[in-house]
Design goal:
Blueprint: E1 2-3, E2 9-12, H1 13-33, H2 36-56, E3 63-64, H3 66-76, H4 84-98, H5 112-123, H6 125-128, E4 132-133, E5 150-151, H7 166-171, H8 183-195, H9 201-221, H10 229-234, H11 238-244, H12 256-276, H13 282-313
Parallel strand pairs: 2-3
Antiparallel strand pairs: 1-2, 4-5
C-alpha cells in the first residue's frame, strides 16, 4: 500500500521488503566483482531518482521508492565494467518510457528495469555482451578491490553455453552480470520475499513449470542445441528474472488463472528463444512479450468467468 507523505519519497513497504531481499545479492556482487558494483549502483540510482523527480515535481508528488528498486535491479543485470554513461542512459530511458509515459508507478505496462536493460542490449550490445570480468575467489574477494580483472574471450550475454560446472553456477563464482551469477543468493532472496509475502508464489512457481516443461521437450526435439534442465535454470539469468521481474505486481496479471498462464508462457518462451532463436537473453524478451498481453489476458479471463456465471444462473 502506498502512503503519500510530505517527505521527498513516498513510503512503500512492499518496495522496502524487496530492497531487504536484495542485500545478499548486492553483497555477493561486491564480493565477486569489486566495489565498482556499489559505485555504479549509486550513480544509476541517483539518476533514476532525479529522472522521476523531474516528472513528480510538476505534479507536486513525492518520488516513489519503486524507482530505487528499479535502479538497483537494473544495475544488477549489467556487467560491472559497463561505462557509467551507458548505464545512466539506460536508467533514464527505462524510467521515462516504461513508467512516466504511462502515468507513473502502478500504471506501467512494462517493468522499467527490464525495459532499460533491453534498450542497452539492443542499442549498446558491445557493452552488454562482450565486456566481462573474472569473479573473485577466496577471502576477502572483491571486497579488497575496486574491480576484478577483465575477460576478453567471452562473446555472449551470459555463461549459458559455456562449459561451467553446475556448482559454480549455483554459488556464483562465474563471470556474468553482477547480480545474476549466484543461484544460491537469488534463492535466499526468493525465500525472504515469500516469507514477507512480498511476491506471489504462483507467479514464482509458474515460470519454473513452463521452463522445465519446455526444456524437457526441447531436449527431445533438439538435443544438440538444448542445455540440460538444471544448467538452463542456473544460467542465463532465468532465476533472477523469475524472482524479481515475473513477480512484479504492477506488470503481472491479477487473476489466479492469468498468473499461471503468464508465468508458464514466460518459461516456455524463454526456452524457445534460447534454443531456437539467436538471443541468449531469452528470459527478458519473454517477460516483455507477456507484459504486452497482461491487460487483455485479465479482461478475457474475467469475461469468461462472467459468462460461466450467467450460464450457471440460467
Amino acid at each position: 500500500m502506498e502512503i503519500k507523505t510530505k517527505d521527498f519519497f513516498m513510503k512503500q513497504n512492499h518496495m522496502r521488503k524487496i530492497l531487504i531481499s536484495l542485500i545478499p545479492i548486492i553483497l555477493g556482487a561486491i564480493y565477486f566483482f569489486g566495489w565498482r558494483t556499489l559505485v555504479l549502483m549509486s550513480v544509476v540510482t541517483s539518476f533514476g531518482i532525479l529522472t522521476e523527480y523531474a516528472f513528480k515535481r510538476k505534479r507536486n508528488q513525492p518520488v516513489s521508492e519503486a524507482v530505487i528498486v528499479t535502479s538497483i535491479l537494473f544495475t544488477l543485470t549489467l556487467p560491472v565494467s559497463i561505462p557509467f554513461w551507458v548505464a545512466i542512459v539506460g536508467i533514464i530511458f527505462g524510467v521515462i518510457f516504461a513508467t512516466e509515459v504511462f502515468g507513473g508507478y502502478g500504471f506501467n505496462v512494462f517493468n522499467p528495469a527490464l525495459v532499460a536493460r533491453t534498450f542497452l542490449y539492443i542499442c549498446f550490445p558491445q557493452y552488454i555482451t562482450v565486456a566481462w570480468n573474472a569473479p573473485s575467489a577466496g577471502f576477502p574477494g572483491g571486497f579488497a578491490s575496486y574491480i576484478t580483472p577483465a575477460i576478453e574471450t567471452i562473446t555472449q550475454a551470459t555463461p549459458l553455453k559455456q562449459t561451467v560446472p553446475i556448482s559454480q553456477l549455483f554459488w556464483g563464482n562465474v563471470s556474468g552480470s553482477m547480480g545474476e551469477t549466484s543461484a544460491f543468493l537469488i534463492m535466499i532472496a526468493a525465500i525472504i520475499l515469500l516469507v514477507t509475502k512480498a511476491i506471489d508464489w504462483q507467479l514464482l512457481l509458474s515460470p519454473l513449470v513452463g521452463f522445465i516443461g519446455m526444456s524437457a521437450v526441447s531436449i527431445l526435439i533438439a538435443p544438440a542445441k538444448a542445455p540440460s534442465i538444471q544448467y538452463g535454470l542456473l544460467s542465463g539469468a532465468f532465476l533472477m528474472l523469475a524472482v524479481f521481474f515475473v513477480t512484479d505486481g504492477s506488470t503481472a496479471p491479477k487473476t489466479v488463472e492469468g498468473k499461471w498462464i503468464y508465468g508458464i508462457l514466460i518459461g516456455t518462451i524463454t526456452v524457445i528463444i534460447r534454443v531456437f532463436g539467436i538471443f541468449v537473453g531469452g528470459a527478458m524478451f519473454a517477460v516483455l512479450i507477456m507484459n504486452t498481453f497482461v491487460p487483455i489476458m485479465d479482461e478475457g479471463i474475467k469475461y469468461l468467468k462472467e459468462q460461466q456465471r450467467k450460464q450457471v444462473s440460467l
